[in-house]
Specification:
It contains two helices and ten strands, in the order E-E-E-E-E-E-E-E-E-E-H-H. By secondary structure, the chain is of the alpha+beta class. The protein has two domains: 82 residues, F0F1 ATP synthase delta/epsilon subunit, N-terminal (ATP Synthase, domain 1); 43 residues, ATP synthase delta/epsilon subunit, C-terminal domain (Single alpha-helices involved in coiled-coils or other helix-helix interfaces, Up-down Bundle). It has a five-stranded mixed beta sheet with strand order 2-1-9-8-5, with no helix packed on it. A five-stranded antiparallel beta sheet has the order 4-3-6-7-10, covered by helices on one side. Strand 1 and strand 2 form a beta hairpin. The longest helix has 18 residues. It is elongated and about 55 Å long. The protein starts with a strand and ends with a helix. The mean pLDDT is 94. The protein binds adenosine-5'-triphosphate. The site of adenosine-5'-triphosphate (ATP) has 12 residues, from helix 1 and helix 2. It is a peripheral membrane protein.
């Protein structure tokens, strides 16, 4: 089965570099499945899990926004933060989720709504990626 090289890079490190059969991402315009020889494209990504298909198996990564560049046999994702599903600390993500939910429902405090909303999305994405979804 043909493959393409998937690289996921953050300012701190290269989180992922593997030959995969397919990459599924959530772009700002919707879900995109990238196969080898896809037309070149650049798109911003949502805060959502990225799925890599390798020999019939799926690997999930939590990728927190950023951009994807598709070239002939290569997909590069640049994001502020990204974690492989099995590296995710689910307890920490649950705590972050609860903290963000509290902030979003607590009307008594001066609140940065957008910031809490983004923290909630990161936490939900981490929980999904850790659970293989
Ligand atoms: P928290 O409130 O728990 O710190 P956060 O969403 O504010 O979560 P980020 O600022 O997105 O955290 O990430 C900071 C660093 O910590 C990044 O390197 C990120 O990969 C890592 N990180 C954050 N949450 C987790 C997690 N649940 N499991 C593994 N790594 C995590």
């Amino acid at each position: 089965m043909s493959t393409l090289r998937l690289e996921i890079v953050t300012p701190e490190r290269k989180v992922y570099e593997k030959d995969v059969n397919m990459v599924v991402v959530k772009g700002v315009g919707g879900e995109l499945g990238i196969l080898p020889n896809h037309v070149p494209l650049v798109t911003p990504l949502k805060i959502a899990p990225v799925k890599a298909k390798i020999d019939g198996k799926d690997e999930y990564l939590a990728v927190h926004g950023g951009f994807m560049e598709v070239r002939k046999d290569k997909v590069v994702i640049l994001a502020e933060a990204a974690e492989l599903g099995h590296d995710i600390d689910v307890v920490r993500a649950q705590q972050a989720k609860e903290r963000a939910e509290r902030r979003l429902t607590d009307r008594s405090t001066e609140l940065d709504h957008k910031r809490a909303e983004l923290a909630l999305q990161r936490a939900l994405s981490r929980i999904s990626a850790a659970g293989g979804e």
